[in-house]
Amino acid sequence: MTGFVKRLFSESTLIPVVSILIGLILGAVIMLAGHYNPFLAYGSLFAKAFGDMYNFGETIRQITPYIFTGLAVAFAFRTGLFNIGAEGQFIMGAVAAACVGVLLDAPWFLHVPLALAASALAGGLWGSIVGYLKAARGVHEVITTIMLNWIALHAANYIVRTALLEKGMARSKYIQESAWLSSPGLSELFDHARIHYGVLIALALSVLFYYVLWKTRQGYELRAVGFNPDASEYAGINVKSTFVKTMFISGLFAGVGGACEVMGVFHYQTINAAFPGYGLMGIAVALIGRNTAVGVVLGAVLIGVLTYGASGMKFGAGVPEELIHVVIALVIFFVAAGGMVELLIRRFRKKNGTVH
Amino acid sequence: MQMTIWRRRSWMAIIAAVFALTFVLAGCGKSDNNQNNGGQPPETQGGQQNEQTETGSNETSGGEEKQYYVVMVTDVGGVNDNSFNQSAWEGLQQFESEYGAKVDYLQSQSDADYVPNLNQFVKNGADLTWGIGFLMGDAVKQVADQNPDAKLAIIDQVVDAPNVASVTFKEHEGSYLVGVVAGLMTKTNKIGFVGGMEIPVIKRFEAGFTAGVKAVNPDANVIINYTGAFDAPDQGKAAAATLYNDGADIIFHAAGATGDGVFNEGIERKKAGGDVWVIGVDKDQSITFGHDITLTSMMKRVDQAVVQVSADLVNGRFQPGLTELGLAENGVGLPENNPNVPEDVLKQVDEYAQKIVSGEIVVPSE
Amino acid sequence: MPNEFAVEMKGIAKRFPGIVANDDIHLQVRKGEIHALLGENGAGKTTLMNILFGLYQPDEGEIRIHGQTVKITDPKKAIDLGIGMIHQHFMLVEPYTVLQNIILGAEPRRGVMISYKKALARIGELSDKYGLHVDPHRTIREISVGMQQRVEILKTLYRGADILIFDEPTAVLTPQEIQELMAIMRKLADEGKTIILITHKLKEIMAIADRVTIIRRGRVVDSLPVRDTTAEELAAKMVGRNVSFVIEKKEAQPGETILEIDNLTAFDDRGCQALRGLSLEVRSGEILGIAGVEGNGQRELIEVLTGLRKASSGEIRLRGRAVQNESPRRIAEAKVGYIPEDRQKRGLVLDFCVGENLVLKNYYAPPFCKRGLLRYDEIFGHAAGLIGEYDIRTPDEKTPARALSGGNQQKVIVAREVACEPDLLIATQPTRGLDVGAIEFIHRKLIEQRDKGKAVLLYSLELDEILNLSDRIAVMYEGRIVGILDPRKTNEQEIGLLMSGGHKGEREETA
């Protein structure tokens, strides 16, 4: 446990923390330049995110999918794979859950697990296509994931349109109530917010993420492949099948995330004109979370609070919502450029050392 | 090992710098804070500040009367979408100046935002909250059910709730008229239609348009192309290129910002000497894209609908339920000026319009 | 007379938290001499040269170049002062030509265009003067390692260097290339260039250096003219105790045949035939050394043996069982241990801790893994044992392998492979880049394995190592074994003749 804690608070946690601070501060500078009051703006942002039970519940609702996609991206990162495709895996998971939810009749204790399992399988298989193409054909995963995202988007729309469509609407029929992950009681507690049990699944998967990665043979293998595929091959690890397995698990995380949106938030699957964006945000979450389980959860909380609170900022301080995307972008920039910041500082120190 | 040690050291420096910066900025911010608002919690402050400025500007017209607070939530297109969101916001602004009301909007970043954004206004006591667009139907329904005392309104979708006014348009009627224009003016007898998503609203455009073309030119062929998105000009451009290549000389689009790409492709071909036209949608798009390429537009007066329903609220005539705006109600139609359409064609358009209003022609909606 | 010293470093100290890398170091290098800097890995000689090249700033001390006190703030400043460094790992852009590499960053320009003509003339001048012959129009990929090194030297000369630092320059070269490099260095010195040679190879120092400064644990032990000393004396000064050069070993007791290779063929990465019907036997209780010029199929042979490369035909039998084209894991489970050539690339996961690296081959088997779960207490217990047994210098078993010195990293690999109790131990370049102490240790371990009745297959580019350790020597040329020699009855000349059945340059042309 101490090792775990140590890993948490090692220097690698400092980079995101500092980057977040820099991002928020620079965001404040931009607000000042636009004659907005940054304190009022951030105050309204946090007031919106945590101000009352309704908004608090909605904030958690917003955070939940980011945990799933963050885990998906982080898991693939651990094997050295850049999974841009969490978006597509998310969509495939969502549509699988919608199919099971709409077309199947079952008591809830079967229906919910079945829908989740279907989404896990759909997301996982969608991910493993990427792993397979990488292993068997050497196609770079960035290319395949981006292409599969589009295929997923349109395939899901096709499925909804042909098999699940509610007449006259751009969405599927409502899923059976037995497949809901939300409950009136829970919503009531949060003043009708659409918080749902998916957040518990997300946290459970975070624990699983940590456990698989650090405690199991599989985790050892995929971390080894991530750090050094040559040495892993030498050690007898089947690198190619590790790619496929990793992408399956990665896609599984994203797929269950998609299911939770359908089963918890909307209770239907819309025909998406564009990507919902959870998968792409997952990259940011994983980056901020440094690919650790706890980091991903915290990163998701950050991104979730910022994006959900953004409208509060507009409402309370008149600051355009878009500005929060600038702040998020700055945070990501500084996390990604952690090494660059470090270099700058070192250079600065060196120069100072030689001036007489 | 040496590297990690270095790293740790430089981090100390970064943290120090950040703390320094924080204090500097905190200093600036504090004075600012004191000047503007005296120590109240931020949220109420914000609301109040807003209210103050609004009342200030409307003091002359406001008087003793209740100031109405009418607001809207956009769908993911955002308030500057060159389409119905923008049109609705223009309507609200017109309403603001005519009635001295307080207006505001929130933009939705994703479809999960619809409900909290509506709630944000409803819970802050908006007198009327608009949901703009077909896609917000479920969200408006949910918020209306949970807040039976609030009043809501929606454009392009029918929401069955006792406190919601639904406004839809007979797009097929207006589209029929631009179909007449296209059918009479095509030289190739091939006419294109570019749709956004394949949803009932857009289907009405397509159905009316096709019927209009066939009514005046049975030989003409309407080629249908749905891009699947309202926010993808690149796809619109590609779709237009395909249609023009297939021999179409007029394209009617009902695709929001995707249609911008249709216009751009048309402008490029026109410059290269091509004899092509585009028929705009929702607003008079010749204002944006010019008369060189815009043949005419199928106007859908979302702005007028917003003004009208909002005014009903002020005048105590707010009616929950469905309002359908067609040619008869001036909810759809061609712009006043159509310099590119010959007089005789416009005359025929007028004749068809009268037949539709009188009920002699019933335009199919799907 | 102007100052006779090209480089003077006085009282240089450099401390990293917890380590004193350089402690009051004095170094004087005369103009036009070849000055060797001798020390074990981690002794501080590279840190010192990095200070001279502007990569680090000293905490204390001063540097004089040609008598002038200078502050060397960064490598650019060093280059301006006429200092050039030839790194152990070349800094070349592979798809670029030799010419483009040499002028990279210092291109002669005519307007916005690069004037290749001017550059070519200048390079021609330099290569004639110092005997550095290269074809400026071939790409780096196409030329041999020795040639690449010449490009590096030309690069520094092109930038006007007159003080050249060579960091372990012979580590990657064949015996012939080493000879050629020595001649070049001599010529450079004769033409007035000052050369600092970082090395731990005593033989090279004795052959070429004028003076030698010995560094141990960050301090200068001695500085003396090479003609006044012997290799044994230098070794003792470097290590701090007497070192024996003669490897003591008992007579080999060869037993049953462990490995049989029969008519093996395989292709290299470019699809050329690398192995052309190779046959070989290794028996228990013997060390079979493979000698050969780099690029004659040795690497491919080892990779096929360990399952990392597919054989196109032929058979490999371990104790009579055919294992060719089985997976690396199956082969390892057939009791084959393998010390890879590139320990950082193949042998270790540098970001894993020492404990995790020590089970890289058997993490999946009990007691380290049960029902899919790793048992870290067992893994770390196992690690602690091996760290003690093999004297691996590491703070603890949870330290990342990256933080260890090269010698200790190699010890981790050897410990891991030997701990698996293999019947056949394949060692490729096991002492490459290591210091004397570590080399001695590795050699002892290999002989120990032989004496325990294991079969050892040794592949090294160091002929001395092959001659000293092997019980039989197989010479490899163009993918075949061209001769099996008895090390007691042969010499470097005979082996060299067999090795050089063809010339490297020609081979590449046909490839």
UniProtKB/TrEMBL annotation, chain A:
Traced from the root, the source organism's taxonomic lineage reads:
Bacteria, Bacillati, Bacillota, Bacilli, Bacillales
Keyword terms: Cell membrane, Membrane, Transmembrane, Transmembrane helix
- What protein am I looking at? ABC transporter permease protein yufP
**Source superkingdom:** Bacteria
Q: Which InterPro entries match?
A: ABC_transp_permease (IPR001851)
Report if keyword Transcription regulation is assigned.
no
Q: What is its main location?
A: membrane
Compartment(s) of residence: Cell membrane
Q: Which organism is it from?
A: Thermobacillus xylanilyticus
For membrane topology, the record states: Multi-pass membrane protein
Q: Which chain regions cross the lipid bilayer?
A: 12-36, 63-83, 90-110, 116-135, 142-160, 195-213, 247-267, 273-289, 296-317, 323-345
TrEMBL record, chain C:
Q: Does the keyword ATP-binding apply?
A: yes
SMART domains per the UniProt record, alphabetical: AAA
Q: Which residues cross the membrane?
A: none
Tell me the Gene3D superfamilies matching this sequence.
P-loop containing nucleotide triphosphate hydrolases (3.40.50.300)
Keywords in UniProt for this one? Answer: ATP-binding, Nucleotide-binding
Q: Where is the ABC transporter domain?
A: 7-242, 259-503
The UniProt entry, under InterPro entries, shows: AAA+_ATPase (IPR003593), ABC_carbohydrate_import_ATPase (IPR050107), ABC_transporter-like_ATP-bd (IPR003439), ABC_transporter-like_CS (IPR017871), P-loop_NTPase (IPR027417)
Protein name, please?
Galactose/methyl galactoside ABC superfamily ATP binding cassette transporter, ABC protein mglA
Gene transcribed to yield this protein: txxe 755-mglA
Q: Which organism is it from?
A: Thermobacillus xylanilyticus
Domain of life of the organism in this record?
A: Bacteria
